[in-house]
Amino acid sequence: MSVFWKSRYLIDSGYGMGSYSIGHFAWLALLLLSIILLGSSYRKGNEKRRRGIRYTVASLVIIDEVLKDVVMPLTGQWDWSFLPLHLCSISVFAVALHAVTESRLLAEYLYAVTLPTALMAMVFPDWTGTLPLWNFLSIHSFSIHFLLVLYPCLLIYGGFRPSVRYLIRIIPAVICLAFIMHFVNNELGTNFFFVNGGGDGVNPLSVLEDYAGRFYLLALPVIAAICWLPMYLIPMRVNKDRQ
Asked: d(Cα 149, Cα 151) in Å, to the nearest integer?
């Protein structure tokens, strides 16, 4: 099988592109450029144009996820971990639903949950240690998180403002899903929602696991609070100064 199609479970060692390599920085630069250029177009566009951009990004997200779900079985590499139950995989459905319904609650979820988790995946990728730049799953992993960061950023350009009132409404749903995934992980040997560990490579969650050990789950709310405090306090301050 070509290295291009191999997953991290079959590929030989020594092929990894490495984090913070030229290829990694190229993806980050492309993400930043896309946010600025497409965000500016979204902000200036009328509602018809904005809807078209949202539909396009949402369609690309769905296609990206479906391609992975088709290619892995066809290449004989299906594994339980490829089920669309990861936090970012669930965000794929959230993006698609929001593009159609424009739900304010889903917009809050995309801002509070999807944006920071997808951005963390882009900055601290756990696939670069084993997969090369020119590899299907490497491209998929970057592109899917790329789109999941881009979509909520477009909403911000379009005037979305976070609300603690809506955040409080989505927290119980996230906790419930995490609770369910804990048992799913125990049955399937997976790590959906990262509730069974911080994942591969060096990232804030793996560092947290190293320090917290078996108290890892209890420390996750601290990580969430650290992310959400600036994400909500800064917009509140900006809005207050504008009044």
From this structure: 6
Token representation of residue 29: 């630069």
Q: How many CA atoms lie less than 13 Å away from 79 in the CB half-sphere?
A: 13
Residues 200/202/206/210 CA torsion (nearest 10 deg): 120
Question: What angle do helix axes 115-123 and 87-101 make, rounded to 10 degrees?
Answer: 130
Instruction: Read off the DSSP letter of residue 111.
Output: I
How do the pLDDT tens digits run along the chain, 243 residues long?
A: 689 999 988 998 899 999 999 999 999 999 999 999 999 999 999 999 999 999 999 999 999 999 999 999 999 999 999 999 999 999 999 999 999 999 999 999 999 999 999 999 999 999 999 999 999 999 999 999 999 999 999 999 999 999 999 999 999 999 999 999 999 999 999 999 998 887 777 778 888 888 877 677 888 888 899 999 999 998 887 776 665
Q: Give the integer Cα–Cα distance in Å for 243 and 241.
A: 6
C-alpha span between 107 and 121 (Å, rounded): 20
Per the CB < 8 A criterion, the answer to whether 149 and 107 are in contact is no
Tell me how far apart the alpha carbons of residues 156 and 29 are, in angstroms, rounded to a whole number: 19
In terms of C-beta density within 10 A (0-12 exposed, 13-18 middle, 19 or more buried), how is residue 178 classed?
middle
Rounded alpha-carbon distances, angstroms, from residue 65 to 125, 147, 203, 224: 17, 11, 24, 26
Angle between helices 136-157 and 115-123 (to 10 degrees): 140
pTM over 0.85: yes
Query: Diameter of the chain by CA atoms?
Result: 61
